[in-house]
Amino acid sequence: MTGNGLRAKSDDKKEEGVSLAENQPSSFFKRKKRVNRNAKRKWGPFSSLGRRIMAINLFAVFFLAGGILYLDQFRTGLIDARTQALTTNGRMIAGALGEAALSEVSFTGKVNHLTLDTRNIRSVLRRLAVVTDTTALLYDRDGDLIADSRVLISAGREIIFETLPPPNQAGNVRKFYEVLYDFLADLIPTSQDYSLFPARTSVSVEDFTEVSEALKGESADVIRQTKDGRLMISVALPVQGFKHILGGLLLIEDGAAIDEAVKSAQVTTLIVFSITVVITLLLSLYLARTIASPIHDMAEAADKVRLGLGRRIEMPDFSDRQDEIGDLSISFGEMTVALYDRMDAIEAFAADVSHELKNPLTSLGTAVDTFERVKDDDTRKQLLAIISSDVKRLDRLITDISAASRLDAELSRTEGEPVAVVGLIDSIAEMYGAGRGPSDVSVEVEISSRDITIDGVPGRLGQVLRNLIENAMSFSPKGTRVLIRVSEDQDGEGKNWVQIDVEDQGPGIPENKLEAIFNRFYTERPKGEDFGRHSGLGLSISRLIIDAHRGSIKASNRFSSDGSVIGARFSIRLPKNNDKH
């Protein structure tokens, strides 16, 4: 039941044809942006995915930079702490030396010439320096060195000693990183952040300016470096007795312990950095495998589809993944199937068009050939009538085919708007009541509510209603009516629907043709109607429009109480617009 909305008759081939509406409905609700299909796909590092992977890779760099900043503060804190400790030890030793110098005072209260250059004071200096584990140098008022804790007197020989470092108890992994750290440190030139520490044999006041400050009664500390970059911390304090400055005490501490602590922390940082790099690489590989690789596979498959490499290209299936990649894979697969179905529909449409155009062309060609041979005027008039009928039939076919081919693209570009269903139906029904249809067939409307609104294209929905009404009127006997019934209902999921039924009182539709009538070019008309008057595209176009509105259309028969057919019914279901207008 088609052909500008009418039922018609066709061969089995047409009944089995593929319909555009049956394959992939268009939708004006989805606007798509056109892109350059020939543009080269970018897999560069500055894509959104690339930036995320780079951020993970750069995490190790930021971690290392933060560690370096922390170690700089850590080193400065160690130097300040050792300087403070050295100053505290120096005050204790200077106080003890001052007390030892005061022991030279006689019991009568007579003060002799106080001096630090005595054996007892040197002995006190050595003992205290051993206890505090500090190198101590003692200078008199004139700045001459009078005692050195590193020098022990034994049998007339001078013995200089240094404390040995503790044995290395590090594990194999840490030993490896310590060797690696030493190798890297050797590649970097030694930086001279502090002044150069004088040679070991040089112990004059000129080499240690802080001693001059101590001889003036002020404490002073200086940080120096040796040529190989080792820190040396020195603190000078005055030695006083009876508020007289007797000399200056210089304490020197090798900063090897500080360097060793910093090195230990840096080696630890290097170990953590290595672990971080390994973890980062593993995470990057994981991301590349679980994100970038599936996307790349789907992109390659999409390129094959675009280039037409194969009849049907299967998209990679990642639907088992419970993430966005799985959703994308499902969408790509469904899109590809819809694309191939659309291509098949286009091919079938072209075949159907070719088949439909051949009949009037063949008839037209036969009539023209015969017209040239016959001389009888009556026969010529009959042939001219056939030629005129075939030309009109071709014109109708081409017009309807053109409209059907443009409809899909038009619906995809058109924006929907709220449509008052009852108002639209009333206006169409009044139009047929004004004499457009057969005067002896009336059109009536039955509604459940006037406030029924849907989203759609009014012009195209009106086209569907006109097709169905004209189709029903053409099969309705004289004196009968065509009833348009509008109702609302709700499905099991709670979604509201609007149903429009167009009922006639005609002979009904064969049960085996209820779906076939929606195929393209299927035409089966009432007896007595001119052949070729309808193209068989009406119901096919109607289904295409309804599908684009996310609805459905189907045909059925109406039965009386005794089971006999009393007419046909076309039912349209469209989603209701719940917004108040």
Please tell me the CATH architecture of the largest domain by its name.
Answer: 2-Layer Sandwich
Shape label: rod-shaped
The overall pLDDT average reads: 76
Tally the helices: 12
Structural class: alpha+beta
CATH superfamily of the largest domain: Histidine kinase-like ATPase, C-terminal domain
Strand percent estimate: 15-25%
**Strand order of the main beta sheet, please?**
2-1-8-7-6-5
Largest sheet: 6 strands, mixed
Q: What assembly state would you assign to the polypeptide chains in this entry?
A: single chain
Structural notes for this entry:
The protein starts with 11 loop residues before the first helix and ends in a 6-residue tail after the last strand. It has two domains: 12-31 and 327-575, Heat Shock Protein 90 (2-Layer Sandwich); 54-269, Beta-Lactamase (2-Layer Sandwich), CATH 3.30.450. It contains twelve helices and 15 strands. 25% of the residues are buried. 49% of the residues lie in helices and 17% in strands. The strands form four sheets. A six-stranded mixed sheet has the order 2-1-8-7-6-5, with helices on both faces.
Question: How would you describe this structure in keywords?
Answer:
alpha+beta, disordered N terminus, Heat Shock Protein 90, 2 domains, Beta-Lactamase, 49% helix, 5-stranded mixed β-sheet, 581 residues, 6-stranded mixed β-sheet
